[in-house]
Amino acid sequence: MNRLLLTAGLLSICGVASCRGDVSEEPPIHLQRNMFSQERYDPQAFSPFFEDNRSMRSPVEGTVSREHYEADDTIATGRFADNSGYVLTVPTAIAARLGGPDKMVQRGQERFNIYCTPCHDKGGNGRGTVARVPNGFAKLPSLHDARLREVPDGQLFATITNGVRMMPSYAAQVPVNDRWAIVAYVRALQMSQGANNDQGKK
Asked: Which of 22, 114, 139, 155 has its CA 20 to 30 A from that of 130?
């Protein structure tokens, strides 16, 4: 009984001693610090190591991302392997990757509605929300213009990839397969508009 009381008393004293209520400026003890306290730079931090004092560095020229690497240059650029011009149609490998032509066009419509409609609108007429801003962008061309109907599919792909005039590059936002899917959907839009025009003439 005495031993039990002694043990209880010691535990009580330890409990009271550990709850003194003092505030400490010392960091907590970490036996395994590992990555908790690593030598690193925060984004946009100053660095005395580099001559320009920037901690954030641009990739070395020619660096290729593993996540977005495309082995087939024709698919990656929209141009023939000998760089003689743009490929005429969406590569068949893209349709196979996306589950067939129907699913490719469906995927293209989904991506088009997300990334392209702000400027081009859902019908591809160049009257999206951004294009309607007062004193904003100049009038955008319709995707149904005869000139754009006749350009090769690879040129449309390259435009999405690299941008043109006021249109920025979408390579960072839209993966290669999805860019080709958007091209396929644009062609479907053009075909449907052409069919509507032909019916109206009759």
From this structure: 155
For residue 141, the tally of other CB atoms under 10 A from its CB is 14
142: its two tokens: 């319709």
Question: From the CB of residue 144, how many other CB atoms can be counted at a distance below 10 Å?
Answer: 19
Q: What is the pTM of this model?
A: 0.64
Judge contact between 125 and 142, C-beta under 8 A.
yes
CA–CA distances in Å: residue 68 to residues 82, 110, 173: 22, 20, 11
Instruction: Please give the span between the terminal C-alpha atoms of the chain, in angstroms, as a whole number.
Output: 108
119-130 pLDDT, tens per residue?
888 888 888 887
Q: List pLDDT tens digits, range 135-155.
A: 666 678 888 888 888 999 999
Q: What is the pLDDT of residue 181?
A: 95
Other beta carbons within 10 Å of 153: 19
What architecture does CATH give domain 85-201? Orthogonal Bundle (1.10)
Q: At what angle do helices 176-201 and 153-162 cross, to 10 degrees?
A: 130
178, two tokens: 């999805």
